[in-house]
Amino acid sequence: MQTENKPGDQNRNIFARYWAWHKKRAAIAKEKEKQKTLPQKIWGWVAVIIEAVLIAMVVRMFIVEPVRVDGQSMCNTLQDGEIVLAMKTPYWTQNPQRNDVVICHYPGRVNEGGIGPINFSASFRLDFSTIFVKRVVGVPGDYLQISGGHLYVNGELVEDPENMGSVPADYPLIRLGEDEYFVIGDNRRNSHDSRYSDVGPISKKDIVGKVTRVILPLGNARAVK
Length: 225
Fold this sequence. Notes:
Blueprint: H1 7-35, H2 38-62, E1 64-68, E2 83-87, H3 90-93, E3 101-104, E4 118-119, E5 125-126, E6 132-138, E7 143-147, E8 150-153, E9 156-157, E10 171-175, E11 182-184, E12 207-216, E13 222-223
Antiparallel strand pairs: 1-2, 2-12, 3-6, 3-12, 4-5, 6-11, 7-8, 7-10, 8-9, 12-13
């Protein structure tokens, strides 16, 4: 009498064959590992470390970068010494928006080693200059002015996060160009930013990423708005 194979039996047979194949592969790999010389094992470990470092570099370069807040210019939104996450993916497909908190470079600035930006193409460069954390208050096409310590964008008063007023107190009315962004620290009395002549409006290529969260210290972890 012929017995009928049930679907469950077929699944178990498939699993059994896969498990036997997997064990055979593992045994072969284990035997090959035993046959390796010490230099070969060392090189294998080095290769794993190099691969991990390269992956971390790519993630930091293109996707997300942790940044330490240095100074009081973004108080009380961000505190000196906090570690924030800056996402780089939002600006792959869209431009920075008004009110975004961003990490950025200032035009013409280099780091202490004197290394400036390295341009690989029109759309990609490595910039080793100092990173600043600021808030975007003006985007291309905006009319911007500071009068009596108050910031106006397109004729409307922009709220002062810390109610401190602006230093410098006045900034002449300007219209931002097609690739110009105006960035200011939330602590407007203690921030070196686009209001100063040695910085001025910055371009999109100077904006590295959007700050989304504080991650350290753990007790201060929060979303950034």
